[in-house]
Amino acid sequence: MIGTTEAAKLLNISTRRLRCLLAQNRVYGAYKVGRTWIIPLVEGYPKIKTASRGPKSIWKKVRTPAQSFVHINRHLIGKKKIDGEFLPAISVKCRNENIYSSRVVIPGPCVVVYEHENPMPGCKARAWIETFSQPIATNGCTYQEIEAQLRKIA
User: Fold this and answer.
1) What pLDDT digit, counting tens, does each position of 42-56 carry?
2) 147-154 contacts: CB < 8 A, separation 24 or more?
3) Cβ(84)–Cβ(114) under 8 Å?
4) What is the pTM of this model?
5) Is 93 domain-assigned?
6) pLDDT digits 0-9 by tens, 69-100
7) DSSP secondary structure code for residue 74 in this structure
8) Are residues 5 and 37 in the same domain?
9) Is 60 inside any structural domain?
């Protein structure tokens, strides 16, 4: 059993640092008698508990990209707007947005899927393209804009 000054010399740290470790309850078997710390020795040295360096940071985590789906809407193929232009039939679904376009560029790898028996949940598409890169839709619009154009035609 030794005091803080001798224990600090054995550990090759300052007495202030040892007192911080004692305050954090990181020295095995240490207890206080009055104003003096009593520190037991294990194999000739005080034993210090290892500690983590706080909670893990969340800012370092890499966000996995959302999977995007691109598919052709059969019910929009060949339909025209009032001005004579064709409605965009390609749908790009990524996270919470759904963009319709007549031209889509997919940078990076992608997979073309055809599932006749198991259509895509939500939109019942039988063929679609899956990608983790963000597809770029030129002249994109929303489904509400397409419905407004279809109501004007009918």
Assistant:
1) 888 899 888 777 776
2) 149/81, 149/82, 149/87, 150/79, 150/87, 152/81, 152/82, 153/79, 153/80, 153/81, 153/82
3) no
4) 0.52
5) yes
6) 888 888 888 888 777 788 888 888 887 888 88
7) G
8) yes
9) no
